Sequence to fold (500 residues):
Amino acid sequence: MPENRSSRPEGTWRPRSDRARQVADVLRQQIADGAFGSGMLPDERVLVAEFATTRNAVRDALDVLRAEGLIVRRRGVGTQVVARKYGHGLHRLSGLAETLHEQGTVVNDVRVAAPMRPPAAVAARLGIDPYTPVVYLERLRLLGDRPLSLDMTYLAADIGTPLLAEDLRHHDVFALIEQTSGSRLGAAELAIQAVNADARTAEVLEIDEGAAVFAVERLTRLACGRPVDLEMIRIRGDRLTLHGDLHRSR
Amino acid sequence: MPENRSSRPEGTWRPRSDRARQVADVLRQQIADGAFGSGMLPDERVLVAEFATTRNAVRDALDVLRAEGLIVRRRGVGTQVVARKYGHGLHRLSGLAETLHEQGTVVNDVRVAAPMRPPAAVAARLGIDPYTPVVYLERLRLLGDRPLSLDMTYLAADIGTPLLAEDLRHHDVFALIEQTSGSRLGAAELAIQAVNADARTAEVLEIDEGAAVFAVERLTRLACGRPVDLEMIRIRGDRLTLHGDLHRSR
Fold:
């Protein structure tokens, strides 16, 4: 089929696994973008034509996406998207419930909310003495009744203590801080890692041990520049995509 | 030991695995930040005191970090950081070699560089007709002679074709585009996912199958707004941390 040949990179023989990865990457992004409105992927033959590749490469690509838990394949029905991904913007500092309010209700299962003495590394990030207590929050965050992330939050005592009397189950910490302190939040520094979930985290997030998760550290400051909120967040990789814009010159 | 008790969140019994995760998260971030200049972690007893926790929780935390390939523990020597992570900023649109030039030399193993007919989804992102060929590049990017990422790049033909005559092994695509086209790059849209590496990607990146990797889609535009460069990038999670700033009001 000359049609197929002309669509491969010219003059290059490529192993099937490389072609399969190329197909899987495009489909993964389409799934993340919600491109398949019906929730059904096109038929295998359509994908073979669309990617101008072989049926085996398409099957391998679908196997990769199935192993990631994004799709299920049902005989006689077709290939269905099962894991809708939510988008979280890196454009603006905002809480999870604020960001996802159009996509569902965020509920926080508050596992710990209490004062504690911070580890020295945490105290240093918050710019406080290690013997000064902080308020520690540990919340399992659910969207549509399913776990989305596990957040460990260390708050400067004057900012965190008033939150212990608030409704942490239904409100973002960001909104509560601004409300109880009367101060606006300013900026946050973010560090994002991709890690494999350890056994216990996997159990809490209801994913397989070893599943890919985002490990995010976020240090949030008041508008005056004072750091008050250090969070270590583990986010299910199969449920969230992070979106951002980059500019060449700034 | 009252010292230890007072440092746990008050009035809360917590399973050892939760305390271990808390310790692991702080240490992981310190490793990513290069906090252990000597490459050695403090002695177990020091960590027990620092985190005011039990020796078993510290050991579990170190097991988690070891399973992630970040540290090795040697009897009689101690705990050593083995996987230094590189930082890549989300502050500005820049190529890998540009960003990491202070940390080492980026070399690109060019696996494919040729014209091809794009999949319809790729053509749509680039705003071109699906029967218009693009230039496809597939590069394994090495930093310090070890794989860092696998980049699949689709370039509009007029932008990509001149690059085929350039030294893709030693130069970022961004720099080459600006040089050969005479146009400045403008902004890019970024979507970041955390996924488990499939078998073949793992082999190419020299990691275990299933290891957590970033899957990044980046659509880059010329300063005039025209989209010209769509990249699907798989980055080793154990070698890179993404850094960004967020602002509450913009």
